[in-house]
Amino acid sequence: MDKIDRMRAFALVAKNASFTVAAHRMGRSARLVSKYVADLEESLDVQLLNRTTRNVSMTDAGVTYLAMCEPLLDGFDELEEAVTNQQTALRGAIHITAPTGFGSMRLAPSLAKFAAQHPEIEVDLRLSDSRVSLVEEGLDLAIRVGALRDSALKVRRLGPMPLVVCASPAYLMRVGHPAHPDALTEHECILDGNMTEPTVWRFHINGKDKAVHVRGRLRANAPAATARLAAAGVGIARCPAYTVSDALKSGELVEVFAEHRIAPYAVAALFPQNRRLATRVRALIDHLASDVSLCGDETL
Q1: Per-residue model confidence (pLDDT) at position 136
Q2: What is the rounded average pLDDT of the residues 215-230?
């Protein structure tokens, strides 16, 4: 029996706390995966996993062994992949998570271009406005827009994404155009529940960042929804540029305080620090970083 298979079986069981999941990912039966792990423990003369009828957990020796065997498995995979890719095109699956709006409007078209260039690549795009764990969900990559808070993940910045404060012409005609960001306290503001501080909007005024506390009866947990509410004339919204670029071009929305925009949010690719990045994933990140249509907009 190949020791690499035994090590891989143990690592997958340990990380997923499941023989069934490990078996599925290896394309083996759960019984065979269990035998792989048992044989590894026998060869080492040490127990790596605690097993009960309900769960699987690592022993102290298992934690140590996993930390040391994962780099070896990554190195073996990298060696095989490097040799294979010298002779063949990029291939394999890439599992990605991204926000629903950005993923649909900007990321999906860019992924389509990448897939067309690499016909042996499979892309699994999972859209969610909740932040999911890459490790727990078995994902290769997260694309995120906004403040970056995952210190346990590596970050590759792909480009800037301005935050745009905007309203419909009908709203501004009815209520009046605020003369200064401070005047927003007297307006109906549409709040984005995904923001860290939905009721605090920041502006760059006279060389300094200024926080303005706003209020509003309407709140949504997706930026595309706040943009549509603003277009409907019910208030002033603060939205990532990708959600309002078309509406600004058509005149459906008007930007307010363009001269006081704060430094833009970042669009970034995030991936686990302790995981070797597969060549195909690196290629995708490079593609996204070079795709000017992912973040850019000539009107903003």
Answers
A1: 72
A2: 92
CA angle 287, 288, 290 (to 5 degrees): 65
Residues contacting 176, CB < 8 A, separation 6+: none
Determine how many CB atoms are found less than 10 A away from the CB of residue 270. 20
The whole-angstrom separation of Cα 203 and Cα 260 is 5
Measure the CA–CA gap between 93 and 79, rounded to whole angstroms.
18
pTM recorded for the entire structure: 0.66
Name the nearest CA neighbour of 167 among 111, 98, 216, 212: 216
CB distance 256 to 167 below 8 Å: yes
Sign of CA dihedral 136, 140, 146, 152: positive
Q: Copy the structure tokens of residue 222.
A: 């997706």
Helix ranges (H only) for 51-94 are 60-87
For 97-116, letters b (16+ CB in 10 Å) and e give: bbbbbbbebbbeebbeebee
